UniProtKB/TrEMBL annotation:
InterPro entries: YeaO-like. This is DUF488 domain-containing protein. Pfam families: DUF488-N3i. It comes from the Bacteria.
Length: 118
């Protein structure tokens, strides 16, 4: 199947599939009813320290990606959740929802790449 990325604030219509919020913090102004999540996976979001270091600076994205993957690889809980999502991708569409404004330089992009690799 496929992995889609959607900024939770920009969703005009709710897409069908397994809907996962991949942010550590709940998005402001979005109700649980509006989000229609199947899962909220705070554990696979970047640490607060890494997020603050990155500060959504596109010039730091490659370094962020490297450090973020290190964090994921060092966390058995994150590995378990990602492997669970990877199994779901085999059978249904998975929609990774995030709040970042930059749609090209954020942790959901890294997660999508991770989930789609063989």
């Amino acid at each position: 199947m496929s992995v889609l990325l959607r900024r939770i604030y920009d969703e005009e219509k709710i897409l069908g599939g397994y809907r996962v919020l991949v942010d550590r913090v709940w998005p402001r102004g979005i109700s649980k009813e509006k989000a229609q999540l199947d899962k909220w996976t705070k554990i696979i979001a970047p640490s607060s320290d890494l997020r603050k270091w990155f500060n959504h600076d596109a010039d730091k994205f490659e370094g962020f990606k490297e450090k973020y993957l290190e964090e994921i690889n060092q966390s058995p809980e994150a590995q378990y959740l990602l492997n669970e999502l990877k199994e779901k991708v085999k059978y249904q569409r998975v929609i990774l929802l995030y709040g970042a404004k930059d749609v090209h330089h954020n942790h959901a992009v890294v997660l999508k790449d991770w989930l789609e690799k063989e």
